[in-house]
Structure formats: C-alpha cells, structure tokens
Amino acid sequence: MGVTVTRDVVRHFSALVLTIFADALALRPGMWRELATVVQSTQASEEYAWLSQVPVMREFIDERKITALGEYGFALKNKKWESTIGFEREVLEDDQTGNVRVRIMQMVEQAYAHYDKLIFELIASGENNLAYDGAPFYGEHATGGTTYTNLDVLALTAENLETAVSQMMRIPLDNGEPAMVKPTHLLVPPELWWTAKRLVNSAMTPDANAAGGAGQSAINPLFGELIPVASPRLTSATEWHLLDNSHPIRPFFLQQRIAPEMQALDGTDGTTETDFMRDIYVYGVRARHNAGYGLPHFAFKSTGAG
Predict the structure, then answer these.
(1) How much of the chain is helix, strand and coil, in % rounded to 5?
(2) Dihedrals phi, psi of 193, to nearest 5 degrees
(3) Which of 2, 9, 40, 71 is the most buried (most CB within 10 A)?
(4) DSSP-derived 3-state class of residue 47
(5) Which tens digit of pLDDT belongs to each residue from 200-248?
C-alpha cells in the first residue's frame, strides 16, 4: 500500500535520514584513525609554529625558562567539502526506507574515505611537500645538532626492517633530547601485505644458520613489534613505511573545523523549487577540514627500489 506524502511524512523521512547518518558516522572506521592525529580547528586557518619546540623538564631554581615558538612552522587553511544526494518523491510514496539506509551509509563511507584520501595524498607527495622545518617531509632533516633522513630505497626484508627501526630510534628532537621513537605500524601496498604479515606476525622464522642447518626455525625478533597495515592507496608496489603513532603528534594530522554533517532541502519549512519542479528531496553532507604533516621524526619511507 502506498504512502500519501504529506509534510509530516517528509519531516519523518528527513529525521530518519539524519538519524541514519549520525549513527553510521559514529560507527564507521577509517584508516585515518590509525595514521593521523585529529586537531580541532576553531578558525579559518591554524598556525603550527609549536611543532618545532618541545621544552624539557628542568630543575625549578630561580624562575621558569620559557620556550618561545620556533622559527619554523606553517599555516593550514581549512577547506570546504560537500556530497549531495537526491531522493525522488516515489521513494517516500513507496516506503523504500531500506534503500535509503543503504544510500546514506554509502555517503558516510565516502565521507570517511575522503579523510583517508587526504592522508594518503600527503604520503604520496611527501618527497616534495615540505615539513614544518622547510625540508621535504621525506628526506634529510637537521634536528638536535645532527641530521637524519627518513627516506631510503631498501627492499622490505627482515634485516632492512630492523635497520630502519634502529635508525628511527636514534632520532632526536630539536632540543637534543631523544624523540623516543619506536615505530608502531608497518604500512605497505597490497603487493607486500603477505610479506609484511610474515615478517611481523610470525613467532618463528626460517634460519639457515641454525645449528640444525637450513630449514630450522629461530625466534623472530620482529614478532609483535609492529602492526601491519595495507592500503591500495599507496601508489607503488614496492614502497613501505614505518610510522610511530604512539605520540600525541603523529606523522600526519587531520585538521577538523566542522565534522561531516547532514543538511536537508526537503520543503518541510515551505515548498522548494527542487521538490516542486523536480519532485526530488535533496540531502547533502557538508564538512570543513584539511590535512597536514606532523613530525617527520615519526615516519620513515622506503621506495623499495633497491
């Protein structure tokens, strides 16, 4: 039996759309949650001069020593994003709420996929885009009276993985103190997924030098040390990344001014041109955000080119 579309029916339908969106938004996972720090923005753009200075604890003898903002930094402007969908009047008349639920959940999926896209665009452009210190995010950096590089060409092997982890652990902060880097994630393309799992998820590993000869097993020192993550958004089949996401500032951050929100042009406050002329009720997602680089200390990239 069909439904007579009245203003109350449209109001109920719009409330259903908004509820489905809000519920799905709260539950939807995304890789960006693992890779990026969320920074709440309160204005059109945000300054990040504070990235370059972290004061150490010192004995309080006479007065406090105030650490000023560093000479390095950058501003990140929020961008506005949207996604819009229209439901024909027949959807309400025929009570097709099941189809509506699927479409709205797809919109939520795409909203969070956009967060992922922004983070992986940073990763893809990291050899050219600059970090807070004015150097390419993936490249050579001067910090704490020394230099380090977080870019290499090593293939993904156990030996190279151990070498890269050890190098990252030696990186200091700008004040000379150890950055206390200990990678938490191994990020790879789909082509290296099974290699990554064998390297870090296997308790034992074949050891050709074992007392019993080739084919014997030895304890894998990499077991449980890293969380393997694979993404088809990585553009190379050989690249791999180490990320330390255990700190308040991660290698990447998502600057969020307005979280994705659903808006309606449904005629509940009066007939609109859209619903009158086209027999369509319009719902759109709107958000304001951007993504930027955090500390390069906590990221390492290898092209895998050998």
Answers:
(1) 30, 30, 40
(2) -60, -50
(3) 9
(4) strand
(5) 999 988 655 555 555 567 899 999 999 999 999 999 999 999 999 999 8
Whole-number Å distance between alpha carbons of 250 and 297 = 9
CA 69 to chain centre: 26
Q: How many CA atoms lie within 13 A of 29 on its CB side?
A: 3
Question: How far is 189 from 196, CA to CA, in rounded Å?
Answer: 10
CA 132 to chain centre: 18
Q: For the chain, give the number of residues.
A: 306
Check if the beta carbon of residue 234 is closer than 8 Å to that of residue 120.
Answer: yes
CA 151 to the chain's CA centroid: 20
Cα torsion angle, 90, 92, 98, 100, sign: positive
The burial of 283, by beta-carbon neighbours within 10 Å (0-12 exposed, 13-18 middle, 19 or more buried), is given as buried
Q: What is the pLDDT of residues 96-125, one digit of tens each?
A: 777 778 888 888 888 888 999 999 999 999
H-type alpha helices, the chain:
7-27, 32-35, 89-93, 97-124, 158-169, 193-201, 273-277
CB atoms within 10 A of CB 162: 14
pLDDT band at 67 (very low <50, low <70, confident <90, very high): very low
Q: Which of 240, 192, 199 is nearest to 221 (CA)?
A: 199
Q: Which CATH architecture has domain 7-54+70-302?
A: Alpha-Beta Complex (3.90)
Torsion over CA: 15, 21, 26, 27 (sign): positive
Rounded Cα–Cα distance for residues 279 and 270 (Å): 14
What pTM was estimated for this model as a whole? 0.81
